[in-house]
Design brief:
Order of helices and strands of chain A: HHEHEHEEHEEHEEHEHEEHEHHHHEHEHH
Strand content of chain B: 25-35%
Number of strands of chain A: 14
CATH superfamily of chain B: P-loop containing nucleotide triphosphate hydrolases
Strand content of chain A: 15-25%
Largest sheet of chain A: 6 strands, mixed, barrel
Order of helices and strands of chain B: EEEHEEHEHHHEHEHEE
Number of helices of chain B: 7
CATH class of chain B: Alpha Beta
CATH architecture of chain B: 3-Layer(aba) Sandwich
Bound molecules: adenosine-5'-triphosphate, magnesium ion
Strand order of the largest sheet of chain A: 3-4-9-6-8-7
Largest sheet of chain B: 6 strands, mixed
Number of helices of chain A: 16
Oligomer: heterodimer
Chain lengths: 403, 230
């Protein structure tokens, strides 16, 4: 009954209610769109970095990430591998062996980073084959795959021979003739100019580092919380190892995201501040012009608690109506732009790709986003309801009826 | 048996502000069950103040009010609201229906607040709508009815929960003479049929003529109290 009266009261002043609900709708719609793009961008940035570069979590020998020296490498003992693999939330363990060296073709020489990967396992994180411009993945231990920039520097192509010269594990000499099996585009000019990939075995052999990896990349299950998986693994290992998450390995990315995120949240905050005043205005008028009626209701025996409930329901219903329609309008667009992502135009796309990020931005569609905004509006409605509650609590029916 | 008993009511407005008004000055009044009483007197004589205090909407500065032996001044707010709900029917001068409810819902509203069962409400509402002659207006909202019709609905609402008595402060002030007569017919009928006690204030001689007891006030006291035959 109270609900019925509240519902009818909302439609007493149709215009005002529609305007109020519409302003909530627009605020929710805009916030959702904005946040969906933003969070989508972050997610795509993180996925990019995490996917092709760092993974979520890496295990190194303590100090490796700072020094990047092959001498600070991990010996992959069975006990170590088992300990980590058997951790809850760990999907797979991807060993990588990374080292610097000189690559030459004819008179030309260039410093490159040579990365030994287990291509089969690596497939879990990134589709390397899709990044091939030419040729195939390394099949033999002496096959090497070079970045686009490296290839154009040497004017080299598939089936050419290159010479690698560098230092192996514990000062061993690492030198060999290698066969270019493929050219790869890492979607990042800086990486393209300096990267070469080999099979893990090939790299281990080249660097005299059998059974050794510089980093063990952990692919975690999607729903496993990053920090707790990291903590559990760190707890299992002694302090000759370091267990780092992507945020620790790439603090700049984390900071960029945080800074940008603050800007977005500020916008949302401003939007909602304006909304608070809008809703408050409506509730204020609704309350003021109905004081007489409230007086009558209390006089004939309606308890103030019920009256408060009625007015409270009016505000909540009006707000939820706005939220609901806002979400219903925004969500299909978010879904659409998630599966058919926004592609950044020219210069911005170049910039993103320069930093190693994709120019495609799939919108963020996790249900926590609309949930958060719905509860924000709900809280605003609660906050604004304080006014009629105070008015009704203080209401003297006689005074109210005298006007 | 008395339903209402006031003793030595004193009510002062704007106390200590220089423009003090003594609205009730030691007023004592007893009203018995089944009375049909008019409170009359010049404007400002304290009629509304008296009715408001009897109805528990206002408090006197001193004196006592007993409704059915209950000292209503001593009740705290929610108890008093509840007491009104169960014992007193109100009819105000104007505009006292709930605008978003239709006639039927307005009449049933008080019983709803009392958590009466649906069938009982429907039965009583139909009966009252017939009594006030508005059974064919049941689905109209207040703004679709005339002032007289609205007041008849208000009387029906006041009676729905079979209160001990009905307080009406100038119920006919906004009505033309035809509507006034119709409203009084209904009040009289309900008074006789259901034994409901009616107390109403008025300036209207035609209304005064139909009361069985006329209490005349001036400057916050009773100056005449007569029974009249009609
Ligand atoms: N809220 C108030 N504040 C100050 N004075 C008031 C207030 N209410 C009533 N009064 C004064 O108290 C006195 C009695 O008022 P009351 O309304 O009871 O008179 P009344 O007999 O109902 O008059 P009327 O016939 O005009 O309705 C008047 O002098 C009035 O001015
Ligand atoms: Mg009056």
């Amino acid at each position: 009954m109270i609900l019925k009266i509240a519902w009818r009261n909302i439609w007493r002043n149709k215009k005002r209610s529609v305007i109020t609900a519409a302003s909530i709708l627009i605020a929710v719609f805009l916030s959702l769109m904005m946040r969906s793009v933003q969070l989508g961008t972050y997610k795509s940035m993180i996925d990019n970095v995490v996917g092709s570069y760092t993974g979520y979590i890496q295990i190194h020998e303590n100090g490796y990430w700072d020094k990047r020296s092959i001498d600070k490498a991990v010996v992959m003992t069975d006990s170590l591998m088992n300990k980590v693999s058997n951790t809850k939330g760990v999907e797979a363990l991807l060993p990588r062996l990374e080292n610097y060296g000189l690559l030459s073709v004819g008179d030309l020489t260039k410093v490159i980073v040579l990365n030994g990967l287990d291509f089969e396992k690596e497939q879990r994180l990134q589709d390397i084959e899709a990044k091939l411009v030419n040729g195939t993945l390394p099949k033999n231990p002496k096959d090497i795959m070079i970045g686009r920039g490296v290839a154009s520097f040497f004017k080299a192509d598939v089936n050419d021979t290159v010479v690698f010269l560098g230092q192996g594990y514990h000062g061993m000499l690492a030198a060999d003739k290698l066969h270019v099996s493929g050219v790869i585009d890492l979607k990042n000019p800086a990486l393209n100019k300096t990267t070469a990939l080999m099979s893990l075995e090939g790299a281990q052999h080249l660097f005299s580092a059998d059974g050794i990896a510089t980093s063990l990349v952990i692919d975690k299950k999607d729903n496993a919380p990053l920090k707790s998986v990291q903590k559990v693994i760190a707890g299992k290992l002694d302090d000759t190892y370091e267990v780092m998450n992507w945020q620790e390995m790439m603090p700049e990315l984390q900071q960029t995201i945080l800074a940008d995120n603050v800007g977005g949240l500020l916008m949302v905050a401003i939007l909602y501040m304006i909304l608070i005043f809008g809703i408050f205005g409506t509730v204020l008028m609704m309350t003021q012009e109905r004081k007489y009626e409230f007086g009558v209701l209390v006089s004939i025996g309606m308890k103030k608690g019920k009256l408060i409930l009625m007015v409270f329901l009016e505000t909540i219903i009006l707000s939820l109506l706005g939220v609901l329609v806002g979400v219903l309008l925004a969500y299909p667009i978010m879904l659409w732009k998630h599966y058919d992502p926004l592609v950044l135009p020219g210069t911005e796309a170049d910039m993103m790709e320069t930093f190693g990020f994709s120019a495609e931005i799939p919108f963020y569609i996790q249900p926590d986003l609309p949930m958060v905004h719905a509860s924000l509006i709900f809280s605003i409605a609660l906050l604004v309801s304080i006014y009629p509650i105070v008015i009704i609590k203080k209401l003297d029916p006689l005074k109210a009826m005298r006007g | 048996m008395n339903v209402i008993k006031t003793e030595n009511l004193r009510k002062v407005y704007n106390e200590g502000k220089g423009n003090e008004v003594l609205a009730l000055n030691g007023l004592s009044l007893t009203i018995d069950k089944g009375e049909f009483t008019a409170i009359v007197g010049p404007s400002g004589s304290g009629k509304s103040t008296l009715l408001n205090i009897i109805g528990g909407l206002d408090k006197p500065h001193s004196g006592n009010v007993f409704v059915d032996q209950v000292d209503i001044i001593a009740l705290e707010e929610n108890e008093r609201i509840n007491f009104r709900l169960r014992n007193i029917g109100f009819v105000f001068q104007a505009y006292n229906l709930i605008p978003v409810l239709n006639a039927k819902e307005n009449v049933g509203f008080i019983m709803l607040l009392q958590h009466e069962p649906k069938e009982a409400i429907n039965e009583r509402v139909d009966e009252l709508l017939t009594s006030v002659g508005l059974e064919n207006q049941a689905l109209k909202r207040p703004n679709e009815m005339s002032g007289g019709q609205q007041q008849r609905i208000a009387v029906a609402r006041a009676l729905a929960s079979r209160p001990k008595f009905v307080l009406a402060d100038e119920p006919t002030a906004n009505l033309d003479s035809k509507s006034t007569a119709a409203l009084l017919d209904i009040m009289e009928q309900l008074n006789e049929k259901e034994g409901i006690t009616f107390i109403f204030s008025t300036h209207d001689q035609r209304v005064i003529d139909r009361a069985r007891r006329v209490v005349t006030m001036e400057d916050g006291t009773i100056i005449a109290d007569i029974l009249q035959a009609n």
